[in-house]
Amino acid sequence: MSQIDRVFIAEKPNMAADIASAIGVLTGHTPKKSSAEGCWLVGEDRVAWLYGHCYDSAPPEQYNPIWKNRGLENLPIVVKMADWQININRPPPPKDGRPPLNYEATVRKVASLCRQARTIVGAGDAEREGQLLVDELLKKQGFDPWGSNVLRLWCSSLSQKDLISSLQSMKPNKDYYLIYLEALCRQIADWLYGLNESRLYTDLAKRQGFDINIRNGRVMTPILGLVVRRDIERANFKPIRYFGVTARFQHQNGQFTVKWLPSKASPYLAESGRVLDAKVPQQILEKISGREGKIATYQKVRKKTPQPLPFSLAKLQILCSRRFQMSADETLSVAIKLYDNLKIATYPRSSSQHFRHAMAADVVPEALTALRGLTAFKGAADSADFAIRSPAWNDAKVSDHHGIIPTGNITNEIYNSLAPDEKKVFDVIAQRFLCQFYPPAEHDATSLTVLCEGETFSGNGSVPVSLGWKVLSGAEDDADEDEDGGDKDTSIFPPMTSGDVVTGVSGTPTSGETKKPAEFTDATLLEACLSPHLHEPDPALKKKLKDGGYIIGTEATRAAIFLKLLGMVKVGDKTKVVDKNPYMQRSAKGKITSTELGRSLICSYPQEEYSLGMTALWEAALGAIRKGQIQPQVFLDKLMETIRKRISEAPNIRMNLKGLHVIQPLPGTGEKCPECHSGTLITREYVPTGKRTPERYLTCSLRKKEGGCNFVKWPDKPKTAPIAGDGEKCPKCKQGHLVTCEIHKASPNKGKKFLACSVRECDFKRWPEIPPLPGTGQPCPVCKKGLVVTRERKRKEGERASADRRFQCCSIRECKFVKFHDKPRNK
C-alpha cells in the first residue's frame, strides 16, 4: 500500500476538482481523476469528495425501543450529547430512474485514503455545517478529528488564486473545535425540539379527532407565528381618518411651507396621538392667519451618507425580493451557482457585510481589476478609487466570511453567458462592491421650527450637494440599504436665523387615513427575522432582543424554512409542492400569508411555543458555544427544561384545527392488505401531470417503509359503451385498434363519444356520423351549387344529452342556408 502525503476531504465533487487544480498549480503535478478510488490524484496528494452530509441522525427507537411509539405517554425523548448517534445516509432512489447515491461506498473510500495518508485535511464549506460533516465522518470512522495530523482548509472563494492562498495558510483542525461543537449542538437541539414538539401536538390533535402529522421547529414555528400575528392584525384592522395642517409663512427673505406639529399635551390630540376632529385644521389656520410668529430653531448642516455595506446573504435576498420579485430560495440558488459553478462571486451564506483589512492586499484589488475588464462595468470600475476606505473595512465584524463580492474570475465571456437571473444577482453584488470605492454622498439638511399663537410648526429639507456613490445606484436604492439619508423632503427654505419674525400667510387642511400593515413578502419576512425586537410583544423580551442584537435563524436555514412552511421542497432548480396541508401560502405577487390551518395551529399553541424572543435567545446561546462561553450540554439541558414544561401543560391545550385537506376514503380503506397481509389499505392522492384534480387510489400502509409492500390499486372506472366502429383496425397507423372514448370535461361537448386509436403515439380520431335528416344530399335551395348536409349544434347548458340537436345547412360554408325542423332561416 503506497503512502499518501495528504488527503483532502471536499464537501462536493466540483469543490474537489477546484482544490485539485489549485494543488496542481502549487506542486506542478497534473491532477488525474480516479473514479475507482473516489478522488483526484495530484502527485502524492489525494483530493476525495463527499456528497454533503454522509450521516443522518439516528431514529429515536435506536436509543430506546419504546420511542418507536409516537404517543404522548412516551415523551419526552431525551438524548445527552455524549450519547448522540448517527447512521449512514441512505436516501431513496431518484424518481428519474438513476441509482441512489451510495454514501456507504463514499465513506469507505475516504476512510481507506485517510488510513494511508500522513496528513488529513478537512475541506468542507467554510461554515459550521461544512465543519461538522467532515469532523463527524472522521470521528465515526475512528480517526481523531482534532489530532496533530489533521488540518483545515478554510476558503470563502473557490477561485484558483483564493484557494492557493488558503492552501498556503492552513491551520490545525483543532482551532475550529468550537465551531464543530456549535454545529453539533444545533443539530441535536433541532432534533430534540422537533421530535418532542411535533409528537406532542400530533398526539394531542389525534386524540381530539384530527388526522394530521404536525411539524414543529425551533425556528419554523416562531416564523409562522410572526406571519399569523400579521394576518390577524390585518383582519382586525379598522382605518382611522386623521387631519392636519400645512401652513405657509412669510419671512423677509421669502415664503416657506411647514407642517403643524401639535404638542403631546394638545387638547386636539386623541389617545392615538392623532387629530381626529375635521374642524380643528380650519381653526388652526384662522388662529395663525395674519399673526406674527418667530423662528424658534433653525439648523442647516452638511451631512454625509456613507456607502451602503456589501451584501450578506439576507441583505442580498431582501434586495432581490424587492427589486426583482425573487424568492429567498431563488436568490440563494443563483448565488450558489455564482460561487460554486461559475466561481465569479464569494461564499454566499455569509452573515457579514464587512471586509478584513488584509483583503486589501489581494482579494479586493483582484475583483476591482476584473470588473474594469468588463464592458458592462468598465466606466464605473475605472472611476472607482481604491484609496477610499468605506465603513465596510472592519475586522471586528467579520467572523467566518466577509461580505459577498465578485471574484477576479469574471470575464466578458462568462458575463455574457449568464442567465437573466444570474446577471441580475451578479450586477447588484458588483454594484454594491464598487460603491465602497466612491466617496460618501453629501447633502445639505435643513430643519426648523416655527412658533405662532402657541402652536408649533416644523419643516425639513434636503438639497443634494454631491452624489458620491449614488451615481452608481441613485435614488432607486431599496429601503434595506444601510443609508442614513435623513428626511427625503426636498423643500428649500430661504436664508434665516433663529429668532427671525415670520407672519402666517395661508395654509391648507390635510387629511389621511391609517393603513393596515402590509402582508409579508420574502423581503419583509427576512427583515423581521433580522430585527425580531420590532415584532416581539413582550416589553422585557423586546428590550433584551434589541440590546443584544439577536436574530431569528441563520443565513443557511431561513430560505429552506420558508419553503417548509409553504409545503414545498427544492428539486434541482425548481420548487415542488409536497404537502397538502401547508402552514403558509405565497401569492403570484409574492405576498406571504398564513393558511387557515396555520392560523388555527398558532391560535391553539401557548404563546411561548412561537415566541420570537425565546428562539432568538437560543440562537444567541449557540453563538456563545462557539465563543466558549457556554458548555453545549448546559444549553441542551435548558432546552429540555422548556420541552418538559410544555409536555406537562399538554392536558390544558385544545387543538382547534381548521382548513385541513381531508382525503375521502375509497371502499376497502382499513382492510388488510391482500398482498403482504401485514399492513392495512389506506387512500392516497395523486395529481396527474397537467391536471389540478387529484385522483385517489388504495395502497398498503407499509408501502413507504424500507422493504415495504408495493401493493397499489386504482379504482375501476366505468367503461364507456362502444359505438359503431369500436374494435376496427386503425386506418392511419395500421397497428392499433379503435376504442370508444367519451368527453368527461365540463363543456358543451361533455358526454360526446368518438373513436381513437389504442396506440398512444397515434393521433387518429373519428367522430361518429350524424344520422341524416330528410332531404340530405339534395341540391342547396339557396345557392343551387352545394348539397344539403346534416350537422349537429353544441348542447346548451341544462339541455338533455339525448336531445335532438341536428340541423341542415349547405356544404358550401359561404352559403347562408340553414334549416331547423323544416323551418329555413339565415345564419
From TrEMBL:
EC number(s) per entry: 5.6.2.1
Q: Which InterPro entries match?
A: Topo_IA, Topo_IA_2, Topo_IA_cen, Topo_IA_cen_sub1, Topo_IA_cen_sub2, Topo_IA_cen_sub3, Topo_IA_core_domain, Topo_IA_DNA-bd_dom
Chain segments carrying region Disordered? 476-516
Q: Where is the composition biased (Acidic residues)?
A: 476-486
Q: Which domain of life is it from?
A: Bacteria
Keyword Zinc found: yes
Q: Which Gene3D superfamilies match?
A: 3.40.50.140, Topoisomerase I, domain 2 (1.10.460.10), Topoisomerase I, domain 3 (2.70.20.10), Topoisomerase I, domain 4 (1.10.290.10)
GO annotation, cellular component aspect: cytoplasmic replication fork
Q: Please name the Pfam families in this protein's record.
A: Topoisom_bac
Q: Which residues form the Topo IA-type catalytic domain?
A: 176-648
> Could you tell me the keywords of this UniProt record?
DNA-binding, Isomerase, Metal-binding, Plasmid, Topoisomerase, Zinc, Zinc-finger
Could you tell me which residue ranges the GRF-type domain spans?
A: 730-771
Q: What does the entry give for GO biological process?
A: DNA recombination; DNA repair; DNA topological change
The membrane-spanning stretches of this chain are: none
Name used for this protein in its record: DNA topoisomerase
